UniProtKB/TrEMBL annotation:
Protein name stated in the entry: tRNA A37 threonylcarbamoyladenosine dehydratase
SUPFAM superfamilies: Activating enzymes of the ubiquitin-like proteins
Stretches assigned to the THIF-type NAD/FAD binding fold domain: 10-228
GO MF assignments: tRNA threonylcarbamoyladenosine dehydratase; ubiquitin-like modifier activating enzyme activity
Length: 230
């Protein structure tokens, strides 16, 4: 029995073939993006391009799927690629060890029209807006993660158009930036939970919240590809 046999029972041969033929670009391999990649690989997505320039740190262990005592100090991109290969050896992998910025050489590495879907799981507002704008120009579906830090209730996550978001401070900033650029119809994941006030600049996190966000985003991507509704 192949690794995708249970998936095939649920979505049929056509669905499995559709996922195997999909190429998805994921920005960020942290608490959210790592679980996006995990779910896409286990679902049988045929090609993943992943982007991150960070190394695994001890502080990542509480929430990031690739972070263990054994992987501290290693490049996230390499650890994730090895993990995906061990899950789905048929997945075509391309890794980019870079920090994406709009006016940097990194922006020229990607032809967004080559992808069936783009996932934004990074934190930098300028980069998030630029990724969304480039996807819109290319006609490529994109989903963007809003804030998952300082949250305790993973059941408050929703996926909606950016115009329907509320409560989330990052979503408020993104609404303005996208509105100023005239960009509409952007699918995002956000939380309606008020952030916990920690008194620290660095956001707090807990084991189950970012992973739930990542799995919800991956699920949305998979359903959209299967249903061809973008």
């Amino acid at each position: 029995m192949s690794f995708d046999e249970r998936t095939r029972l649920l979505i049929g041969d056509e669905g499995v073939d559709r996922l195997a033929g999909a190429r998805i670009l994921v920005f960020g391999l942290g608490g959210v993006g790592g679980y996006v990649c995990e779910a896409l690989a286990r679902a049988g997505v045929g090609a993943l391009d992943i982007v991150d320039n960070d190394e695994i740190d001890e502080t990542n262990i509480n929430r990031q799927i690739i972070a263990t005592r054994d992987t501290i100090g290693r490049e996230k991109i390499r650890v994730m690629m090895n993990r995906i290969r061990s899950i789905n050896p048929n997945c075509k992998l391309t890794g980019y060890d870079c920090f994406y910025l709009p006016d940097d050489d990194s922006a020229g590495l990607f032809d967004f029209s080559n992808f069936d879907y783009v996932v934004d799981a990074i934190d930098t507002v300028a980069a998030k807006v630029d990724i969304i704008a480039r996807c819109k120009d290319a006609g490529t579906p994109v989903i963007s993660a809003m804030g998952t830090g300082n949250k305790m209730d993973a059941g408050r996550f929703q996926i909606a158009d950016i115009s329907k978001t509320s409560v989330c401070p990052l979503a408020r900033v993104m609404r303005k930036e996208l509105r100023d650029r005239g960009i509409t119809d952007v699918k995002v994941l956000f939380s309606k939970e008020e952030p916990v006030k920690t008194g620290q600049r660095t956001p707090g996190s807990i084991s189950y919240v970012p992973p739930v966000a990542g799995l919800l985003m991956a699920g949305q991507v998979i359903r959209d590809i299967l249903n061809e509704k973008h």
